[in-house]
Amino acid sequence: MTRTQSEELRSKVTALKAQGMTKRAVCETLGISGNQWDHYSRTPEQVAARRVRRDVWHAKVPSVLACKVARFNRRVKPSQVIDARAFEASVRECPTCYLTGRPVNLCDRKAYELVSDAGALRLVCARAAGCLEGMTCDELIALSKEIAAQHVTRDAF
User: Fold this and answer.
1) Which of 17, 72, 120, 156 is the most exposed place for a label (fewest CB within 10 A)?
2) Measured between alpha carbons, how far is 33 from 24 in angstroms, rounded to an integer?
3) pTM of the shown model
4) Helix (H/G/I), strand (E/B), else coil: 94
């Protein structure tokens, strides 16, 4: 449908609506669906307001991250509950893995895990999270240093 056809249909819907016709009557008269009536019966102000609401919705915490924070909050004591919006704001600029420094896609639920480390919530990539298995981040870092030191001495000979 071209822009002119769309504008013509909008003016017809608006005119019939102004005459007091019901949604069903307008749809039957013009041969359009209810969804098309909803679309063409909006005023320019309503369309603009809808765009603003959509922008606000997209600015909210990504649902994947919010779900992960909610799951984390269900497992911890009430004093350790994390605010999802505050946490998302802290990692939004540059979401990187706390352990590896790799970039993390917050919208991919399999790409990262949330890990509690010394009372703080940490964003950890899935690969590093698989290595943690019952260790804290500090314990994993210490173990990695030991492994690296072992390989440096072993490779020296």
Assistant:
1) 156
2) 9
3) 0.50
4) coil
